[in-house]
Amino acid sequence: MSRSKHDLDLHGASETHFSVMAPDAVIYPTSSEEVAAAVRICREHGCPVIGFGAGTSLEGHTAAPRGGVSVDFSKMSSVLAINAADMDVVVQPGVTREALNEELRATGLFFPVDPGANASLGGMASTRASGTTAVRYGTMKDNVIALEVVTAEGEIIRTGTRARKSSAGYDLTGLFVGSEGTLGLITELTLRLQGIPEATAAAVCAFPSLGAAVETVIETIQCAIPMARIEVLDAASIAAVNAHAGRDDPPQPHLFVEFHGSPATVAEQAEAFGALAEGNGGARFEWSAQEEDKRALWAARHAAYYAILASRPGARAVVTDVCVPISRLAEAMEAAVDDIEQSSIPGPILGHVGDGNYHAILLIDPEDPKDKNTALNLQKRMVENALALGGTATGEHGVGMGKLDHMEAEHGAAWGLMGDIKRALDPNAIMNPGKLVRQN
Amino acid sequence: MSRSKHDLDLHGASETHFSVMAPDAVIYPTSSEEVAAAVRICREHGCPVIGFGAGTSLEGHTAAPRGGVSVDFSKMSSVLAINAADMDVVVQPGVTREALNEELRATGLFFPVDPGANASLGGMASTRASGTTAVRYGTMKDNVIALEVVTAEGEIIRTGTRARKSSAGYDLTGLFVGSEGTLGLITELTLRLQGIPEATAAAVCAFPSLGAAVETVIETIQCAIPMARIEVLDAASIAAVNAHAGRDDPPQPHLFVEFHGSPATVAEQAEAFGALAEGNGGARFEWSAQEEDKRALWAARHAAYYAILASRPGARAVVTDVCVPISRLAEAMEAAVDDIEQSSIPGPILGHVGDGNYHAILLIDPEDPKDKNTALNLQKRMVENALALGGTATGEHGVGMGKLDHMEAEHGAAWGLMGDIKRALDPNAIMNPGKLVRQN
To answer: Does residue B323 lie within any of the structural domains?
Structure first.
């Protein structure tokens, strides 16, 4: 256990715009039994319990607004079993995405969910994370097969088995994925793996407008051409990435795209996609099958958040995360671009266009409350517009504290039902209180 | 409303071995509001409410062991909206799988989940159904985007939006999918669609043993060859299908397989699969790209249940549904075949081998209680073996009344948590009581 100010502040801090809300103590359990024992003690004392993985979440999930104990999973970071024939793996929650793929390298398998940050897998499950590959491989919802969870009562339960599918009652695995530590703490995960594709091809392509880029993606999906990644960056994002990664892409909206398969299918898909892109005015279409070029391309995309942050020195970010039906994506993004352009702060936009999910990185001076207010107002309008278009306030970052105010508008009466579930499974309101759901 | 004996018996009957348990009344609502009003009246009177789709479920889901009102959704069977650009569709719960695909034909899109029976989509969601195509397209869990539900309080709620993904709180859609009408009634579904593949190829292939057939599938998955369907039939199933469908496949274990894609990718996948099959002793490997041949092939597979029933005149069936990690599938199936052979009743076995899910169709004389006892004992041992191998009692049929006794062994302490959820969302215990979960 640690009560040093440094540790407390570290665990109460956020990647984005939230101020530090430190817990009263940090513990570093090494087993599920230790986690369960800690939760039972906290329950007796009505003390909040907050899970902590890699601290890369964006909505204040790991902050401790009511104090309590931060449960840091960094000492529970073992890969417990690799079942190659079943293409699954059993891990502790502190294993990071990159560490897992490093351990899997020799098996020819990989774990596909890629939110950009080197998040912990427990954290990724807790926020129902996704990222650049969800268009092909799904989100954490689709890639967690089973969990071990310490409940709010301090009991260790298992949800699901290693079977690929089941109809054996309520989908508790699905309920805990995305529950942000408000119903229990994930202490073990069984994850679905994929075969490393024989061939991949990646490309970047400039378009005359966001609408033209999005239309290309809609047509690609309708032609059932299986994209492994398809990302859109607006002109402002491209400018930031150019400055940061030493690229020289023209200042226009771009698609970054990747295909996975056999050499023949990848070539076929790339050609079919190229024809659709050309039909929508796409230009400067460069395919690369060279490992080095592809790595540089995706490194640039992954560093876009930091590139954009660096474009305004000293800035912090409010990162929006709406997701809309893809048919409404172009209009939603264009409305957001217009709204940001008319505001006093910069906010480059990029997104997982195959899912209809995009982020505006709204850059604020952390010392200037007006900036933050402007950003939160922009975000509010983006969310309202997304809901009006049949979308959601958050595609992949979760609710935490940052999206709590939008939940009633999004869910209506179903919001009350979430509260019922919370009260049933955490009657003492100790599990990550103040996040995801309101509880008395 | 109907209270005719014919209607009551029809709604209290089962496809399989359950005796008739008739409701007190059947209603045929035409809108969500009518459903909500009926639930509110039932709630006032503590009267059970049982949803009824096409009546094709296998575990007594629609039976009324405590009487009550059967809510028949056959008059809520409209396709409400086809959103082609977003590849989704909004339907009422009484729409059947075949009716939906008929309506979609002109769009170039289809709904892939195919449990064999022409089930209603509300029923398929309620039991978390899957079937032959789950290996490629997933189960109902993966293909329901959002729901409208009438809760046990008689309130109409919406779970989810039309966005492709969301992290906005607890996954209520996932909670209601597979909840078998025990938490509420599904009154509208938003479903994910797929593009009709440009090309398909289907084949049937005999193997020297179940183990050799399963090994071929494991290798195919590991090579990331995307199968659209992969079904195993044991020698006894093949004999029944031969007799029923006029085929002349040799009396050995077979794989039925199908690939979807472009003509080139399908040809490539078929060739790669053929090489793996040959390496495992597969013979008589006949590819067919002819629409007529493929249709005959899958018609034979889909009719297998009825072919097997017909092989013992007058028989009823106990249909097992265990699902295990695919690495343990061959041993699980072989143990089941041995156990059945040593018993006094026939029980051909077939399965969705890509998912590790198989069914023994245990044929019983409905007049002979010894037969039923034998079948239930065989099923019990199959379930115990599946759980010991890391699997589940039910891959796709659901719990209903038939699998209730296995839930505690499968879920352990998590079983109590399912009860907590049930009590929180249905405090008056009116929603399909006696199914899925125990309540008081």
So the answer is: yes
Pairing of β B283-288 and β B349-352 = unpaired
Same domain for B49 and B171: yes
Domain span holding position A320: 312-403
User: Is residue A119 a contact partner of residue A97, using CB atoms and an 8 Å limit?
Assistant: yes
Q: Which residue among B197, B355, B414 places its CB closest to the CB of A158?
A: B414
Which residue has 């278009």 as its token pair?
A: A389
CATH number of the domain residue A364 falls in: 3.30.70.2740
Predicted structure pTM score: 0.97
ipTM of the complex, rounded to two decimals:
0.96
**Mean pLDDT of all residues in B185-211:** 93
Residues in chain A, total: 440
Which of B150, B151, B153, B166 best tests the A interface by mutation, with the highest count of A CBs <10 A?
Answer: B166
Residue B368 has pLDDT above 60, yes or no: yes
Pair of tokens at residue A264: 């023949």
Query: Do both B25 and B167 map to the same domain?
Result: yes
Residues A228 and A248 in one domain: yes
The answer to whether the CB of A403 falls within 8 A of the CB of A323 is no
Report the number of distinct structural domains present in chain B: 3
- The reply to whether residue A171 touches residue B174, judged by beta carbons under 8 angstroms, is yes
Do A86 and A211 fall into the same domain? no
Distance CA B331, CA B334 (A): 5
Per-residue pLDDT tens digits for B133-161: 999 999 999 999 999 999 999 999 999 99
Domain annotation covers residue B317:
yes
Rounded Cα gap, residues A423 and B176, in angstroms: 18
CA angle A55, A57, A63 (to 5 degrees): 65
CA atoms within 13 A on the CB side of B238: 19
Indicate whether B124 and B28 sit together in one domain: yes
Cβ contacts (< 8 Å) between A421 and chain B: which residues? 170, 175, 421, 424-425
> Counting Cβ atoms within 10 Å, is residue B3 exposed (0-12), middle (13-18) or buried (19+)?
exposed
Range in A315-329, A352-366, B265-279, B375-389 the model is least confident about: B265-279
CB atoms A326 and B85 under 8 Å: yes
E-state strands within B250-404: 254-261, 283-288, 316-319, 349-352, 357-364
CATH classification at residue B128: 3.30.465.10
Q: Which residues of B touch A88 (CB under 8 A)?
A: 325
**With contacts defined as CB-CB under 8 Å, which chain A residues touch B407?**
168-169
A5 Cα to chain B: minimum distance (Å): 32
Give the integer Cα–Cα distance in Å for A428 and A44: 9
Residue B146 lies inside a defined structural domain of this protein: yes
Task: Answer yes or no: do A318 and A419 share one domain.
Answer: no
What tokens appear for B204 in the block?
A: 């049937």
The CATH number of the domain holding residue A295 is: 3.30.70.2190
* Residues A440 and A389 reside in one and the same domain: no
Interface test with A, best of B82, B151, B164 (most A CBs within 10 A): B164
Quick: pLDDT tens for A347-373. 999 999 999 999 999 999 999 999 999
Instruction: Kindly list the residues from chain B whose CB atom is less than 8 angstroms away from the CB atom of residue A177.
Output: 171
- Residue after which a domain boundary falls, among A280, A306, A332: A306
Show residues of chain A in contact with B410, CB under 8 Å. 161, 168
Q: Please name the amino acid found at residue A40.
A: R
Task: Look up residue A233 and give its two tokens.
Answer: 């960056």
**Rounded Cα–Cα distance for residues A325 and A315 (Å):** 31
Predicted local confidence at residue B440, as pLDDT: 53
Question: What local confidence, expressed as pLDDT, does residue B284 receive?
Answer: 61
Between chain A and chain B, the number of residue pairs with CB atoms below 8 A apart is 280
CB spacing of B167 vs A161 below 8 angstroms: no
Which secondary-structure segment (H or E) carries A157? Answer: strand A156-159
Asked if B436 reaches chain A (Cβ–Cβ under 8 Å), the answer is: yes
**Same-domain check for residues A100 and A230:** no
pLDDT bin (cut points 50, 70, 90) of residue A101 is: very high
